[in-house]
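Methods — Computational structure assignment.
A single polypeptide chain was analysed. Its primary sequence is given first, followed by the predicted tertiary structure written as C-alpha cells.
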Amino acid sequence: MTFAIAVLGGFVFQLIHMPIPWLLGSMVFLVIGSRLFKGITLYWSGQVRDTGMIIIGYTLGLSFTLSTLTQIGLQLPTMVLFTALLLLCAGAIAFLISKLSGIPFPTVLMGSIPGGLSQMITLAEEVKGIDITVVTFLQVSRLMMIIFCVPLLIFSPLFHVSGNHSAVAAVASGSTGFVTLSPHIWVFAAVCVLSAFVAKKIKLPTAFLLGPMIGTILINLTGYEGHALPPFVLSLSQLMIGGYIGLLLDLESLKNKTKIILLSVLSGVLLIGISMGLSLLLTRMHDITIVTAFLGLSPGGMDQMALIAKEVNGDLSIVTCYQLFRTFFIFFAVPPLLKLAFRSMLKGKQVTN
C-alpha cells in the first residue's frame, strides 16, 4: 500500500510537470497518506532507500574525472570558508528560534545544523536535556522544505534554467535507454554494492551514497568508463529515497505543533535565503554558474541536491564536493565541538545556581 501511494504521487507530480517528480511526489503523498490512514502503519524499508542511494552514488561518481578533481582541489579553501559561514548562520538562526519559541538553545541548534540529520539525532541521544522529538522534527521538516522549495526556485524565472526532460523524451520515443548499457555495468554494479557495505563497516557518513561514489570514481580514474543509467532507473531511485523521507515526519508525537511548524518554516526560509546570498558571492570568486553554486551550498541532502543538479545540467562534481565537504565536516568536527560547548553551558548554569 505504501508503494502504491508513493507511485501515485510520482505519477501525479509528473503529470503536473513538477521538478524531480518521483522524489517530491512520493514524499508529499506519503506525508499526506500517513495522516489519512491512521489505522494502518505505512512502512518503507531502509534497504529500499539504501538501494536508491547506491544508484545515486554511482551516478555522482561518473561525473568525477581527473580534471574535475584538480579543479575541486583549487576550491578547497573556499569550501572551508563557505561551510563555516553557513554553519555560523545556522547557529544564529537557531539562537533566534530558541528566543522566539522558548525551546532550549542546544535542542534548537541540533535541529538546525544543515545536512546533519542522522548525526544530530545520534548525538542528541548522547547529550542530557535534549528533546529528541523536536530535534528530529526540525531536521526532517527543514530537509523536506528545502527538497521541495529548492527545485521550485531553480526552475523559477529567477534562475532562467530549463529541466533536462530526458525521461519524458525517452518515453515519447518508446525507448527506455537500456540498450545503451554495456556489459561493463555489471562490474560497476558489483563494485558499488561492495563499496557501500565497506563504507558502512568503517562507519562513513551516508555510507550507501559515499561508498558507491568513491568506488565509481576509483574505477573511472583507471580509464575504465562507466555509462549513464536510463531515465527509468534514475526515476526509480528518486522514488526509493522520496518514499523513505516522506515517512520520517511524525507530527503526532510533537507538542505545540503549530508554533514549532511555523518556526521551522521560518528557519528553512532564512537558511535558503542565506544560501542564495552565499551562492552569489561564490560565483564572484570562482567561474561557476549560479545554479551550481546554489545547489552546492543549499542546506539539504547531497543526494537530493545532486538529483536536481542532474536535472538542470549543473556541474555535478562541484555540487557533490561542496555538499560532501560539509557532510564530512559535520560528521567529524561538529559533534565534538557541540559537546564541548554544551558542557561549558551546563557548567556555567551550575555556577550561576
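Note: The longest helix spans residues 257-285.
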